[in-house]
Amino acid sequence: MEMDEIIEFVAGLDGVLTLRPQPGDGSPEVSWGDTYFYYAPDGVVPRTQPFATIVTKNYPGDETSHLDRPGTFRVNFFAGKDAFQSRTGRAPRDPDPHDTDPSATDTLIAHPVYGSQGWLAVVNPGPRTEAAVRELLTAAHNLARSRRQRRT
Q1: Could you write out the three-class secondary structure of the chain?
Q2: What's the mean pLDDT in 109-122?
Q3: pTM given for the model
Q4: Which of 32, 47, 50, 58 is most buried, by CB atoms within 10 Å?
């Protein structure tokens, strides 16, 4: 899956606000080139975390995916406890197996930093993970929509 294909897919879900920080918009430089997805049917950035992101570079403390390789990106999504456990075979707060390679492409993994909070990730999704990525992005969107509906 190409990054633009993922962005188009998520943008097609109802009530999604897509942010793509760039120079001059007031966002921190580290976020430029990345993409953030919020459930925001009113078009206003909520005070919550995005339900999914696409990152295109290493962040401080998050270098293990080696996103500094040309053409490399990682899609991240909030899965929640049940989906996380179903996909990984462990609870989010359980230790990550030591043989997990966060830089492996087309492989669904616990997010290397936010896995303990129920986030999953895929570096350069491809044929093996495309269906799971679409399912998990849709589920993350649905969770964000439900949270907003409970709050309003």
Answers
A1: CCHHHHHHHHHCCCCEEEECCCCCCCCCHHHCCCEEEEECCCCCCCCCCCCEEEECCCECCECCCCCCCCCCCEEEEECHHHHHHHHHCCCCCCCCCCCCCCCCECCEEECCCCHHHCEEEEECCCCCCHHHHHHHHHHHHHHHHHHHHHHC
A2: 97
A3: 0.95
A4: 50
Pull the structure tokens for residue 30: 């580290």
Structure confidence at residue 121 as a pLDDT band (50, 70, 90): very high
Burial class of residue 113 in the structure, from the number of CB atoms within 10 Å of its CB (0-12 exposed, 13-18 middle, 19+ buried): middle
Cα 39 to the chain's mean position, in Å? 13
Q: Is the pLDDT of residue 111 over 90?
A: yes
Mean pLDDT of all residues in 14-40? 96
